[in-house]
Amino acid sequence: MQISAAMVKELRERTSAGVMDCRNALAEVQGDLEKAAELLRKQGLARAEKRLERVAKQGLIEAYVHAGARIAAMVELNCETDFVAHTDEFKRLAHDLAMQIAARAPAYLSKEDIPEGSDLDPKEACLLEQKFIKDEARTIRDIIMETASKTGENVAVRKFVRFELGK
């Protein structure tokens, strides 16, 4: 199948992957845009997992106050460079995470943080294991890994806090 520039452009707009990566993915799946996007997503996540060991000391703190000002959340989201911390993609992730924390009230960051012997469900109690409020098919861990894949840097939540009036 012939891979057109328009197909490559559309896939690139969907995934933010490089031109040659898009072209190769389309060639591998005989021009199917959906399959190519999924292939690129999986490849990107594999690359992002390799970056987890790199130090992420830059980033930002995002605050979210829910309508009515009865619930608020703050999150410290880190990346490797100040440049990435100021991108729209990174800022959107930080805002979405603060909203997630306000909405779902996680007690811990990851499964490893739950005290031993506790009967808490990690899918409810851990931020990284929770389903994303904007897309229940994906977890917060998935969302963070996708952003890490797009930015090319390690992206990590360092800490978060949630406030609720009267609690």
Description:
The chain has helices spanning 5-15, 19-28, 33-50, 82-85, 88-104, 122-125, 140-151; strands spanning 58-65, 71-79, 131-132, 135-139, 156-164. The chain has two domains: 5-51, Ubiquitin-associated (UBA) domain (Helicase, Ruva Protein, domain 3); 55-164, Tetrahydropterin Synthase, Chain A (2-Layer Sandwich), CATH 3.30.479.20. It is an alpha+beta fold and 167 residues long. The protein has seven helices and five strands; from the N terminus they run αααββαααββαβ. The strands form two sheets. It has a three-stranded antiparallel beta sheet. The model has no long low-confidence stretch (mean pLDDT 87). Helices cover 46% and strands 20% of the residues. The chain is elongated. The longest helix has 18 residues, at 33-50.
